[in-house]
Amino acid sequence: MERGYTAQGEMFSVADMSRLAQEVLGCQAEVLSGGLGSPNRDRVLQHLIAGHLLLIPYYDEDFNHEPCQRRGHKAHWAVSAGVLLGVSGVPSLGYAEDPEFSGLFHPVPSMPCQPPPLPEEGSPGAIYLLSKQGKSWHYQLWDYDQVCESNLQLTDFSPSRATDGRLYVVPAGGLRSGLCGQVLLLRLHDASH
């Protein structure tokens, strides 16, 4: 599913991806509108801290697969599977320091722990998403604010795609209403429930 298109060139809307996640993966999918910033920021971060996935529709991809701002011309889907928080102090009980990286702490499995306080909004370099997109086999750490800004500026269908001879089905209302500022919160169903 390169670049979020089917073989026929159809573009997936957030609603389409939500249905696909529920039907194919059997998970709960919730569309969250308004972008990754306020008022959704803390909810998105708590979702990731709880171990759930975040599907980011059509962030613009730069040459190194990181988010950029090209109004949607280089649009891709990305999945975030975790978050790295820059906190001012050592986390409370329930966290262990990484044996290879001093100052990096992980929650201890099966041990109750209090999530650390979230960095203040607008703190540069304090929040990174552990993310991956379809053209790369590797996860990367992306600055949260950079992803947020990229997701919010998806407004235009790429002129080069419009003239490449393929048929594209753009979401109703275009990129702005079908993709811009939207994310998908995914929760895998717990087999024990």
Short description:
By secondary structure, this protein is of the alpha+beta class.
Topology diagram in text:
Layout: H1 14-25, E1 27-33, H2 41-49, E2 53-61, E3 67-68, E4 75-85, E5 95-97, E6 105-107, E7 127-133, E8 140-143, H3 144-152, H4 159-162, H5 174-178, E9 182-188
Antiparallel strand pairs: 1-9, 2-3, 2-4, 2-9, 4-7, 5-6, 7-8
InterPro entries: ACTMAP
Keywords: Aminopeptidase, Hydrolase, Protease
Protein name: Actin maturation protease
N-to-C span: 32 Å
How can the largest sheet be summarized? 7 strands, antiparallel
**Strand segment tally:** 9
Q: What count of structural domains? A: 1
User: How much helix is in the residues?
Assistant: 10-25%
Structural class: alpha+beta
- What is the mean predicted local confidence, pLDDT? 75
| Total helical segments | 5
- Based on CA atoms alone, the radius of gyration comes out at 18 Å
Label the overall shape.
Answer: elongated
Strand content: 25-35%
- Low-pLDDT parts are 1-10
Q: What is the H/E string?
A: HEHEEEEEEEHHHE
GO molecular function, one term: aminopeptidase activity
Protein name: Actin maturation protease
Organism: Loxodonta africana (African elephant)
Family: Belongs to the ACTMAP family.
Features:
193 residues, alpha+beta, seven-stranded antiparallel beta sheet, two-stranded antiparallel sheet, 5 helices, 20% helix, disordered N terminus, protease, aminopeptidase
Structure, described:
This protein is an alpha+beta fold and 193 residues long. The protein has five helices and nine strands; from the N terminus they run αβαβββββββαααβ. The chain has helices at residues 14-25, 41-49, 144-152, 159-162, 174-178, and strands spanning 27-33, 53-61, 67-68, 75-85, 95-97, 105-107, 127-133, 140-143, 182-188. Strands 1, 2, 3, 4, 7, 8 and 9 form a seven-stranded antiparallel beta sheet that branches. It has a two-stranded antiparallel sheet with strand order 5-6. A hairpin with a 6-residue loop joins β7 and β8. The longest helix is centred in the first third of the chain and has 12 residues, at 14-25.
